[in-house]
Amino acid sequence: MPTLLWITECGIWPSSENWHLYYRLRQAYGDQRLLHEAPGHLFLEYEVDDLASFLQVAILNGWGGYILTHADYVNAFFSHDEYFDFFAEDRENLTQVRNALETVHQ
After folding, report:
1. Fewest beta carbons within 10 Å, which of 3, 26, 93, 105?
2. Is the pLDDT at 106 greater than 70, yes or no?
3. Helix (H, G, I), strand (E, B) or coil at 105
């Protein structure tokens, strides 16, 4: 499903930021805009690897923001303080995420 990666926190840990890497990644998709001009990145169903790459760069840069799904199944906030917070209208959806994360964590 389409997913929006929305960067809302940056510049908190300047020594951790690699702006060059971020902008080169963004330029690879034909986007020349600065982060403050376009803080959101919309990824389509087949671009899951692209979403993972942008999210990894954001986390490595010490940024925070949201992962918002079109279906609103489960969304997430990731913090510059190195944690994720998942939220959903249906609590059962969160149970499924928790179970999946526990399986990976073991």
Report:
1. 105
2. no
3. helix
